[in-house]
């Protein structure tokens, strides 16, 4: 389908319930063709301040709605996403490149956060605490934090928005969203649907354009009480520094360097299946994608041979082609990083079992790759590749592999395959990461807490924990009773 035929295409920015344009524009590029899709109005400091003002005014009314009233808007927003799933998936594949089937999957995943948080929003319970003085009573309530600034990446153009907007808006906060400049059209489509769902003007605003200016305005504004960011560790650290001046609350979901361990007692076929799902989804461009495969000596040949065979069956093509499993990388910079990681690995003794070069399709396409004989002196061991390259390392003992797996500043996701119950407990508890997949390669779901330890971030998204990031605890002491 042509993106222009969708009902949801908007190229302005959305502030206080209105679509606004700007003479200054930037081009959104289709990563499969490197051709322009649309010119999008570019927002800066002034537009961001206007959006913050709108969200600040809207907060006063939105917080006073009943939880059920807010829930109805969030729920309807999710239903509308599903009613428009083909339009949303078309926009997503065009601007992000992922296979259409994956884009449709993401629409469902993204909408699930609205369903979930529409429910959770009704269950933000307080409590009473047995008093410390006979003539007084203690009450604890939870209140929405206020205006939330959300900054999102391009790899999941919808889900990274709903995972923040769902809990924030259900809890009574209002939001100014800055999506990635690579994928603003998906975010604009969400604003169209927010309005249709009945979100009052100012509750959900979207500005896209100059990242540093928009980010700077959000960080400087006193009325923005919380920032929720998903993206690189570099920008996350910058936001954390900037948040200090106004002491904003922060949720940060940053980079990962996920290990995937295959022990000698593992079901090797299941491990290969899990590896494929976890490494090659979204062409390796997710923050929970495996970055390091550790395989025990005695099963190393078996696992790497089977993995290479499975990888050779992947189909690299434009996201709209029938049967495609691997789309393009997001842009030329991403491609360069993948190329340089593979070159460095090969120069340091890595053996390419499959792939290892640019795709004959040209553009931003790269052949899915498996590299054997990987070791820790390679760049691929310490940097997140964010591309379709599986580097496989050997190990001999459980103690050794735990040391290796934890030898990173990141701590988002980790995976391992083993059928020994004692080992399962020891390794699951020993891994320094917020998420552990045990005999499973896909861990994302709206019902479970997603987030990292160490430099992978702060806070959790999804699940009942996800809404806690958007409320403040208030303690009331009632005396004179
Ligand atoms: P990636 O490398 O995955 O693109 P980034 O951290 O650069 O990760 O981007 C994630 C989000 O952060 C995007 O929306 C991007 O525009 C935004 N961003 C980049 N630089 C800044 C900045 N200085 N201030 C605020 N947001 C920024």
Automatic annotation (TrEMBL):
<dbReference type="Pfam" id="PF00171">
    <property type="entry name" value="Aldedh"/>
</dbReference>
<comment type="similarity">
    <text>Belongs to the aldehyde dehydrogenase family.</text>
</comment>
<dbReference type="InterPro" id="IPR016163">
    <property type="entry name" value="Ald_DH_C"/>
</dbReference>
<dbReference type="InterPro" id="IPR016161">
    <property type="entry name" value="Ald_DH/histidinol_DH"/>
</dbReference>
<feature type="domain" description="Aldehyde dehydrogenase">
    <location>
        <begin position="21"/>
        <end position="475"/>
    </location>
</feature>
<dbReference type="GO" id="GO:0009450">
    <property type="term" value="P:gamma-aminobutyric acid catabolic process"/>
</dbReference>
<keyword id="KW-0560">Oxidoreductase</keyword>
<protein>
    <submittedName>
        <fullName>NAD-dependent succinate-semialdehyde dehydrogenase</fullName>
    </submittedName>
</protein>
<dbReference type="InterPro" id="IPR015590">
    <property type="entry name" value="Aldehyde_DH_dom"/>
</dbReference>
<dbReference type="InterPro" id="IPR016162">
    <property type="entry name" value="Ald_DH_N"/>
</dbReference>
<dbReference type="InterPro" id="IPR016160">
    <property type="entry name" value="Ald_DH_CS_CYS"/>
</dbReference>
<dbReference type="InterPro" id="IPR029510">
    <property type="entry name" value="Ald_DH_CS_GLU"/>
</dbReference>
<dbReference type="InterPro" id="IPR050740">
    <property type="entry name" value="Aldehyde_DH_Superfamily"/>
</dbReference>
<dbReference type="GO" id="GO:0004777">
    <property type="term" value="F:succinate-semialdehyde dehydrogenase (NAD+) activity"/>
</dbReference>
<feature type="active site">
    <location>
        <position position="253"/>
    </location>
</feature>
<dbReference type="InterPro" id="IPR010102">
    <property type="entry name" value="Succ_semiAld_DH"/>
</dbReference>
């Amino acid at each position: 389908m042509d993106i222009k035929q969708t009902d949801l295409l908007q190229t302005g920015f959305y502030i206080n319930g209105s679509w606004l344009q700007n003479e200054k524009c930037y081009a959104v590029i289709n990563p499969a063709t490197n051709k322009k899709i649309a010119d999008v109005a570019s927002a800066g400091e002034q537009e961001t301040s206007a959006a913050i003002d709108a969200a600040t005014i809207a907060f006063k009314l939105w917080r006073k709605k009943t939880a059920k009233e807010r829930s109805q808007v969030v729920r309807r927003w999710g239903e509308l996403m599903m009613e428009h799933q083909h339009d949303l998936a078309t926009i997503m594949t065009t601007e992000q490149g992922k296979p259409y089937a994956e884009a449709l999957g993401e629409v469902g995943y993204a909408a699930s956060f609205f369903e979930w948080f529409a429910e959770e929003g009704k269950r933000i319970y307080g409590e009473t605490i047995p008093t410390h003085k006979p003539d007084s009573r203690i009450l604890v309530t939870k209140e929405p934090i206020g205006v939330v600034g959300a900054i999102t990446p391009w790899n999941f153009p919808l889900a990274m928005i709903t995972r923040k907007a769902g809990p924030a808006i259900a809890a009574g906060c209002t939001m100014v969203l800055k999506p990635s400049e690579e994928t603003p059209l998906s975010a604009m489509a969400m604003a169209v649907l927010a309005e249709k769902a009945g979100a009052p003007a100012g509750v959900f605003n979207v500005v896209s354009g100059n990242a540093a200016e928009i980010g700077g305005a959000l960080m400087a504004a006193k009325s923005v009480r919380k920032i929720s960011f998903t993206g690189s560790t570099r920008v996350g650290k910058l936001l954390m520094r900037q948040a200090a001046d106004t002491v904003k609350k922060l949720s940060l979901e940053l980079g990962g360097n996920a290990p995937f361990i295959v022990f000698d007692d593992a079901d090797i076929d299941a491990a290969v299946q899990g590896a494929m799902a976890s490494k090659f989804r979204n062409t390796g461009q997710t923050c929970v994608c495996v970055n390091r495969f550790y395989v025990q000596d005695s099963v190393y040949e078996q696992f790497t041979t089977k993995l290479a065979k499975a990888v050779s069956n992947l189909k690299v093509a434009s996201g709209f082609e029938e049967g495609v499993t691997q789309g393009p990388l997001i842009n030329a910079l991403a491609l360069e990083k993948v190329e340089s990681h593979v070159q460095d690995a090969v120069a340091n003794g890595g053996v390419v079992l499959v792939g290892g070069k640019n795709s004959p399709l040209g553009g931003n396409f790269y052949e899915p790759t498996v590299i054997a004989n990987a070791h820790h002196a390679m760049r691929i061991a310490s940097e997140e590749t964010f591309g379709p390259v599986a580097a496989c390392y050997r190990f001999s003992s459980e103690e050794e592999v735990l040391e290796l797996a934890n030898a990173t500043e990141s701590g988002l996701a980790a995976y391992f395959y083993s059928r020994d119950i004692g080992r399962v407990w020891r390794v699951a508890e020993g891994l320094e990461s917020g998420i552990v997949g045990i005999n499973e390669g896909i861990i994302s779901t709206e019902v479970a807490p997603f987030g990292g330890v160490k430099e992978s971030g702060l806070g959790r998204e999804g699940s009942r924990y996800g809404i806690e990031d958007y409320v403040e605890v208030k303690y009331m002491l009632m005396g004179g009773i």
